[in-house]
Give the backbone structure.
Amino acid sequence: MSDRIELKRAKKLKGGIIPPPDKSISHRAIILSSISKGRSVIKNFLRAEDTMSTLNAFRKLGVEIDDRGKKIIIEGKGIHGLKEPEDIIDCGNSGTTIRLLSGILSGNSFLSILTGDESLRKRPMGRVIKPLRQMGAEIIARAEDKYPPVVIKGKKLKAIKYDMPMASAQVKSAILLAGLYADGITEITEPIKSRDHTERMLPSYGAEIKVDGLNIKIKGGAELKARDIDVPGDFSSAAFFIVAALLIKNSDIKIKGVGINPTRTGLLDVLKKMGAGIELVNTRDVSGEPVADIYCKGVKVLKAANISKKQIPALIDEFPILCIAATQADGITTIRGAEELRVKESDRIKAMVEGLRKMGVEVEEFRDGLSIKGNTKLKGALIDSHNDHRIAMAFSIAALIADGTTTINGISAVNISFPGFYKMLRTLMR
Ligand code: S3P
């Protein structure tokens, strides 16, 4: 199968879709159910490469997982029930898998070795190694503890007080999970609030956790209890369709069952400020997470936006698609304080600058972001996904408003988070 797609201008998008299940919550559902006592049923589990990396990792750690497609049944082993894996664990492309697993394995008294694909082996691990060592874990990594593979010999952990140097839900979650194995109360302070799915989910499995603004305390030593969980739709996947509907004239779509946790929906706030008419209806709770249906229509004029550091965590994964919206806004959109994007599945600042310039957009690159000149007529181009799912999907949406043909290379990357992306897009095209 060829790993490229050719796309042309779309007339309009119409209809209703249900986005794929949330990736972050699917990972956490596998992780927490595996270390709980008893049977957990996960409904609406995301079947994508990243979340399958987590599922397969826990099988290697001795957890019985019955995979019935979107329904997953886990026979949880309890907090001390994991077993030493016979081989290294391959976390594929998934930063969430390797970082959260590092936290758990630090408290398990056996040897484990975690690695991943070419992209994951370039992603920083020092940010989790530092606090986990302070807790007493024996943990080392390649290139003087910078990159995977990571070798962990679990130990009895002690609680620490940790001021996080960066906003990262993966780092926060790694420490919280290690905190389950620590003596005493582990305390974490974040510089800016990052996604809080771990904190929302842990108490429902029986953990004792207290959240006070940017400060989180977790008590070690508790046994977790199995629970059933229903995973809401992924806002980060829905985001591509939200922006597509805004940018393609006469579009009118409904996206059903989307997670609208405020630590995830920074893009909505920005788009509304830019002048987009987006409506949230039927707001409800699904397994402790807010969920809504989202109505989205084509918009005549968008205004440029100025985005700064404190806004970044709540829209971190929406940066690529926000850049596409900015190309159509009136004025210059600037995004700063986003240096974390340089260490995602690809260097997303570089990948967006490169692709946007190819499509004829005037862009200035900064160490920590970029600025984009709006009101630009995009022209079809040859785009490289850099094997990054969100870069592939963002430029696929750009292609639908561009003159001529856009070819995107490396589209199999979408399987990381959204295997049915192109099929879903086709169901909306009129
Ligand atoms: C994630 C956290 C974010 C995000 C990633 C998923 C998570 O990463 O970019 O796609 O599930 O915790 P960081 O925590 O490294 O910012």
Q: What stands out?
A: The chain is about 30% helix and 30% strand. The first strand starts at residue 4 and ends at 7.
